[in-house]
Amino acid sequence: MLIILLAYLWQYSLCMEELVFVTVIARNGARTMNNHRYFNIVNNKSFITNPGKLTNVGKHQLYLLGKHLADKYIRKQKFLSYNYDAKEIYVRTSGLNRTIESAQSILQGLYQPGTGPLLYSAQAERAVPPIKVEGYENVVKELRDGALPDYAQNIPIHTSSEENDYWFSPHIHCNSLSNDKEESESTIRRINNNYLSFYNKLNVTYNLTVTSITDIYELYENIVSAIVNDVKLNINITNEDLATLREATLRERMEVFLRSKLKVKYLGQTMLNDMRKYFMSADEIPQKMALFLVSDEHFYALRKMFTLNVTGLVPFASSLIFELTKIDGQDKKVKAIYNGKRLDLGEKKNFKEFMEHLNRSTFATEAGFAKSCLSLPPSKYDIKKYNIIALIVFFIFLLIWGGSWVMVLHSKKKKPFERVPMASRPDKAKNSLDGPDTGGIFDDKFFNNEEGVVNNSKYG
After folding, report:
1. Which pLDDT value is given to residue 399?
2. Per-residue model confidence (pLDDT) at position 452
3. Higher pLDDT pick, 281 / 444
4. What are phi and psi of 327, to 5 degrees?
5. pLDDT, position 396
6. What CA dihedral angle connects 81, 84, 88 and 91, to 10 degrees?
7. Helices first, then strands: H and E counts in the chain
8. Out of 47, 144, 243, 342, which residue is the most buried by the measure of CB atoms under 10 Å away?
9. Contacts for 251-256 with beta carbons within 8 Å, 24 or more apart?
10. Kindly report the CA angle at 309 between 307 and 313, in degrees rounded to 5?
């Protein structure tokens, strides 16, 4: 009986699922209103002074999301170390302040105060800056043996400015995204025809200015920001109108904003490219988690790219997690979890199919990116630049061509060289071969004029 039990346990252990790598993609938390056109729907000045700023509600949302990740991957699964290990986790955000602050908040939940580094007594004596610190003794006493207050941890966050960030700012670095403007406008007109009466209702009932589906997205985001942050609205919008706003906003995101397949590919590039790299080398590297903090547009792109069975808009502090696991120590699988709910990836749950999908869905190489985004018809700025260069080249050509003709005309004015006949030169014999500039080399003393015999007496 004991042998059978041990055999069962051994077989069970072989079928254990081992977590290999985790990619976490999270949206920023609740923020202030982001578009000044609809600031009049609230009276709270502090809420509209700093557009798009992460609020205290947003910070709290991301802290709790970080705590959820800590409970799952540190305390329960023992996947990450209890104390921060720089080799285990990589954090990247877009260049927006709200995503950077969101990353700070989620990391405080993931590695909570009390888990930070300690100082030995000998280190504490040396851990002072080269300047007098007022109240130094009290500060040291409060820190006790911690490097930071409350034994907190500092964790690096990687980011770039919008101008230098190729992957989180596609509208700047991929000119081809603006080349389909005409088709986008056609899509906008088609959707607008379905909502004209609703636009009119919003304008008349709530004293707003809505003329297009693009206005709808801005309006709805401002309303949601106010509601989530408990800021009172000046408009008493009905649940029915709010539901229609939500429906129209989703159409704007999926049918207008993400109409271009290239934009979908571009917005998912950074996260998926890194995920491919980590998944491929997960067995060989110490890194275990990649954490990305992004805006809602990246979420919609990922949903469309993976055809995820997710409906509705993307709430603040949403999360999409991809887990790479190994079964029986060999067979690799991929799980997708959206806001705590596991999604069906279909055939893409198999590692091979998942990686092939990543290769098709992203710019697998820099050359692929260059081909799609850089080898394009020139923009208006480029055309203007090229025209200036062409004019400069044309004027240089004119100068060279004109200069050559001046030289030709000038040379025609000079008297051409003429041989002077000997008969016209009384100082020379008639058969002398001396020309005008020979200096007497071929004069009459050199030849015998009568017989044509050379006289070498002079030149010996």
Report:
1. 83
2. 46
3. 281
4. -115, 135
5. 87
6. 140
7. 16, 6
8. 47
9. 251/191, 251/213, 252/191, 252/213, 252/214, 252/216, 252/217, 253/217, 253/296, 253/297, 253/300, 253/313, 254/300, 254/304, 255/187, 255/191, 256/184, 256/187, 256/188, 256/191, 256/213, 256/214
10. 95
Q: Tokens 């649940």 — which residue? A: 239
Over residues 122-164, the pLDDT tens digits come to: 888 888 899 888 888 888 888 888 888 888 889 999 988 766 6
- HSE of 111 in the Cβ direction (CA atoms, 13 Å)? 21
- H-helix or E-strand containing 290? strand 289-294
Of 243-247, 300-304, 339-343, give the lowest mean pLDDT range.
Answer: 300-304
* Helices 213-228, 181-206: crossing angle, 10 deg rounding: 60
| The two three-digit tokens of residue 96, written as one number | 């927006």
Residue type, 273: N
d(Cα 210, Cα 381) in Å, to the nearest integer? 32
pTM for the complete prediction?
A: 0.75
Instruction: Report the amino acid identity of residue 105.
Output: S
Residue type, 163: E
Q: Which residue carries 């070498």 as its tokens? A: 456
Q: Which residue has the tokens 């041989």?
A: 419
Rounded-to-integer distance, Cα 73 and Cα 70, Å: 5
